[in-house]
Amino acid sequence: MTLQLDKVSFSYGRNARRVLSHFSYSVPDGFTLLLGPNGAGKSTMLKLACGLNQPTSGAVRLGSHTSRDRRFLSQVAWMPQTITAMAGLTAREQVAYTGWLKGMNRGDAWDAAVTALDRVKMKEHADVRTKKLSGGQLRRVGVASALVHGAHILLLDEPTAGMDPTQRRVFRDLILSLATSDVRVLMSTHDIADLAEEADQVTVVNDGRVTFTGSTEEFLNLAPVETRPERRAETAYAEASAHP
Prior knowledge:
Elements (H helix, E strand, L loop, with lengths): L2 E9 L6 E9 L4 E5 L6 H8 L7 E6 L2 E2 L3 H6 E4 L11 H11 L4 H14 L15 H13 L5 E5 L7 H14 L5 E5 L3 H4 L5 E6 L2 E7 H5 L11 H11 L2
Parallel strand pairs: 3-8, 3-9, 6-7, 7-8
Antiparallel strand pairs: 1-2, 1-4, 4-5, 9-10
Helix pairs in contact: 3-4, 3-5, 4-5
Organism: Streptomyces montanus
Pfam family, one: ABC_tran
GO molecular function, one term: ATP binding
């Protein structure tokens, strides 16, 4: 099933400026990078796409289900930029607690937490208290929490912010391993150079509009042929942002 934002509009408050207006988008298969400057509407788009916020008009759909339906919420997961270590809980307990909040019974959530931690290569840290984990490890616990209830669409809001190059590379490889025919990943990021060539698709949002969406090859080809390889992704992004 395809996750679609169909002519959605949204504003933060009755008299506030609309962040998105008649905005439409379908999440592609595989791993998609979501790019755009601060204030472009990326985070709002992701919060609408996961059902955390509801549009003032239009609809967010997964097949025949809208973002208000339980079936929708069981299939779509969102991970915020900041992951909080819950006081006194181990990694397994924190992931299992998230599963329970999403409607799983306690036994199923406890078992699923181990599977989810294994998927993000954190099984060996399952019994470590989250307060003792590094920032990169805590982000992986966040991904496990997002996936614990069996979601097939994963929305990540700036998950590599604040990571050093090595941490970003490890996290990138993790996301690539998750983005399969069974799981679609849409990830907003500023790490264009690190990730652009690894993604299946690239979407650029600017001023509440999609200014580009297409394959990674199509995205990189926006850069002039004489562009140096190390500057190609950033140049393509500048070109894509300027498109109508």
